[in-house]
């Protein structure tokens, strides 16, 4: 690592434990920072990140536009930009609108209550592994209309490989296994569509596929990306959010008073998606720096979300904050397609957990994944304690 990169070493154990002081230093001293090892510009201001995300003509996710090939398993609505992406993105939005979100939420309440009730008898359990992951897998499975996968050894290995490869810029060795994992998951999704699904998003896709002029590969990869983002990201979010609240027990009452506003602030304050990348298509200027065609640009959403130019008291967790123009769900043509689902999950889990188990607490040491892209806990021991007397 070059001397200059000492300003930002994303995998330094201290930064993994708490990256926010580093983000702050970057934003204050060099907000459009050239990172030698990554060969990328690191953006930490809200205005610069928003500009990059809202101008796909200039900052693209389709790296082929600057001559960088996109491996087959990565081709999806995430790596196409308008106009190529537009029909697929609209199709995905229509597929979501066709779902019964009231029913999805009712089911989520029941599953959250039942799973927590079962885990209470264990004493201490891992909140992310034992609760948030099966819970979010249950939600996304219902939404896509397919049973949850069997979480066996093979599944865990593939999922770890995909997770690690999100940091392929820092760890190039992880790239190949990540592509193989994506391919395996896309095959899994292709089998749903071949099986004539009758429910959820998969049924919508199978029934309306003829409207779309995309290859099977792009279609299956897009559904895979939707499905995978649909459990991995909110599971991390729930772990981060509950940890944040358990470190601020004085704020639990405010959480329950207006849980939707609290969820928004938790996405801002401790959201899981820390960075997303784009590639510059034309020489341009950004924040006083010359960015060249072909340069990689990394928008640090988690840094932008604490930019004092955009938020009053940005380092303070204010569960009543409104408006809250955070970038935790992204912006523009790639903004999160599942934000409504994530919001339901946040509402359901925080309400159920803190109403039913007023003594819930962290019950051991926390460990963060060594991942600079998606922030979350690899170890989060929790115990629920007594059940509230007001819960039936
Ligand atoms: C708290 C939970 C979540 C957070 C913080 C989150 C965050 C994000 C962010 C920041 C992006 C933008 C990526 C970019 O610009 O490159 C994104 C995209 C996406 N998210 Fe989420 N997400 C969450 C939950 C979900 C869920 C539950 C689903 C599915 C049900 C989902 C599906 C997607 C998809 C498909 C995209 C890609 C959209 C596109 O490229 O057009 N996400 N998400």
TrEMBL record:
<dbReference type="InterPro" id="IPR036396">
    <property type="entry name" value="Cyt_P450_sf"/>
</dbReference>
<keyword id="KW-0408">Iron</keyword>
<keyword id="KW-0349">Heme</keyword>
<keyword id="KW-0560">Oxidoreductase</keyword>
<keyword id="KW-0479">Metal-binding</keyword>
<keyword id="KW-0503">Monooxygenase</keyword>
<dbReference type="InterPro" id="IPR002397">
    <property type="entry name" value="Cyt_P450_B"/>
</dbReference>
<comment type="similarity">
    <text>Belongs to the cytochrome P450 family.</text>
</comment>
<dbReference type="Pfam" id="PF00067">
    <property type="entry name" value="p450"/>
</dbReference>
<dbReference type="InterPro" id="IPR017972">
    <property type="entry name" value="Cyt_P450_CS"/>
</dbReference>
<protein>
    <submittedName>
        <fullName>Cytochrome P450</fullName>
    </submittedName>
</protein>
<dbReference type="InterPro" id="IPR001128">
    <property type="entry name" value="Cyt_P450"/>
</dbReference>
């Amino acid at each position: 690592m070059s001397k200059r990169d000492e300003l930002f070493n994303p995998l330094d154990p201290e930064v993994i434990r708490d990256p926010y002081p580093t983000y702050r230093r970057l934003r204050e001293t060099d907000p459009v920072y050239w990172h030698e090892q990554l060969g990328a510009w690191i953006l930490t201001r809200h205005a610069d990140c928003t500009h990059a995300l809202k101008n796909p003509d200039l900052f693209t996710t389709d790296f082929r536009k600057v001559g960088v090939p996109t491996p087959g398993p990565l081709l999806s609505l995430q790596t196409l930009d308008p106009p190529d992406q537009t029909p697929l993105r609209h199709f995905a939005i229509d597929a979501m609108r066709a779902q019964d979100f009231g029913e999805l939420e009712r089911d989520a309440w029941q599953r959250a209550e039942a799973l927590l009730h079962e885990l209470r008898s264990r004493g201490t359990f891992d909140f992310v592994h034992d609760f948030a992951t099966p819970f979010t897998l249950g939600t996304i499975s219902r939404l896509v209309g397919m049973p949850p996968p069997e979480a066996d050894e093979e599944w865990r290995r593939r999922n770890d490989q995909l997770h690690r490869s999100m940091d392929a810029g820092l760890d190039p060795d992880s790239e190949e296994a990540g592509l193989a994992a994506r391919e395996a998951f896309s095959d899994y999704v292709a089998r749903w569509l071949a099986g004539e699904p009758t429910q959820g998003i998969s049924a919508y896709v199978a029934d309306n596929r003829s409207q779309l002029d995309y290859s099977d590969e792009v279609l299956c990869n897009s559904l895979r990306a939707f499905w995978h983002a649909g459990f991995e990201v909110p599971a991390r979010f729930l772990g981060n959010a509950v940890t944040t609240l358990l470190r601020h027990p004085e704020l639990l009452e405010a959480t329950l008073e207006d849980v939707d506003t609290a969820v928004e602030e938790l996405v801002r304050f401790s959201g899981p998606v820390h960075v997303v990348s784009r590639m510059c298509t034309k020489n341009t200027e950004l924040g006083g720096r010359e960015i060249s065609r072909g340069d990689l640009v990394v928008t640090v959403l988690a840094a932008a979300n604490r930019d004092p130019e955009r938020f009053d008291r940005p380092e303070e967790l204010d569960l009543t904050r409104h408006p809250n123009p955070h970038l935790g769900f992204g912006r523009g043509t790639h903004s999160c397609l599942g934000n409504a689902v994530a919001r339901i999950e946040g509402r359901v889990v925080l309400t159920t957990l803190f109403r039913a188990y007023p003594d819930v607490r962290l019950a051991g040491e926390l460990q963060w994944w060594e991942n600079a892209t998606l922030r979350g806990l690899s170890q989060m021991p929790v115990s629920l304690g007594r059940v509230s007397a007001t819960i039936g």
